[in-house]
Amino acid sequence: MTHSGTTDPANTGAINMYNVSIPPMVLGLKSLQAILDKAEQHATDHKIDPTVVLHYRLAADMFTLARQVQLTTDFAKGCAARLAGVDVPKYEDTEASFAELKTRISKTLDFITNVDPHAIAGSETREITIPVGGQPKMFTGMAYLNGFAIPNFYFHATAAYAILRHIGVKIGKRDFLGWN
């Protein structure tokens, strides 16, 4: 079920918690899917084992490409769920192929686009408590969105982009922005 064509906050054109969270994350996830398509084609064209690409990282202490994609989806689904006051879907983090990562992104897109915009509306002051560094941390909805969820979403999406760019995948700013 989608909410387009209804009187939900997403169709008002107003700045609200839904419009500043879900649509940008949808765009970011769709862009990440398209970038993964190009990465998979790059691996095929250059006869690179896809597992090597999925396990690539820019520094020894950073997460792999696969983990960056997983975390990007985690922050998207976590944001949507917490702002709406619903349970966060749990994923097993077992994706071992481009196809499995793209399925995870599709599953996340399905979830976040079907969260009721009215449940997110007014979540600016909703209390959200999450574990950070093993300790509970309390946010208001606005502080969570602006200071935690969005920055982490883009951090991991950008890391995935940077890894792929570093190994020679022909992607650029337009790909990251979803303009290609």
Can you characterise this structure?
The chain has 180 residues and is mainly alpha-helical. It has one domain: Four Helix Bundle (Hemerythrin (Met), subunit A). The chain is built from 7 helices and 2 strands. A two-stranded antiparallel ribbon has the order 1-2. Strand 1 and strand 2 (135-140) form a beta hairpin. Helix 1 packs antiparallel against helix 3.
Keywords:
55% helix; Four Helix Bundle (Hemerythrin (Met), subunit A); 180 residues; globular; 2 strands; mainly alpha; disordered N terminus; single chain; 7 helices
Please give the number of β-strands: 2
Q: Looking across the biggest beta sheet, what order are the strands in?
A: 1-2
Question: Distance N terminus to C terminus?
Answer: 27 Å
Helical proportion, percent range: 55-70%
Write the CATH architecture name.
Up-down Bundle
Q: Tell me, what is the CATH class?
A: Mainly Alpha
Number of domains: 1
Please give the count of helices.
7
The CATH topology name reads: Four Helix Bundle (Hemerythrin (Met), subunit A)
Shape: globular
**Cα-atom radius of gyration:** 17 Å
String of helices and strands: HHHHHEEHH
> Which structural class should the secondary elements be placed in?
mainly alpha
Compute the average pLDDT: 94
List unreliable stretches of 5+ residues: 1-7
At the fourth CATH level, what is the homologous superfamily?
dinb family like domain
Biggest sheet details:
2 strands, antiparallel
Please indicate the percent range of residues in DSSP E strands (runs of 2 or more): 5-15%
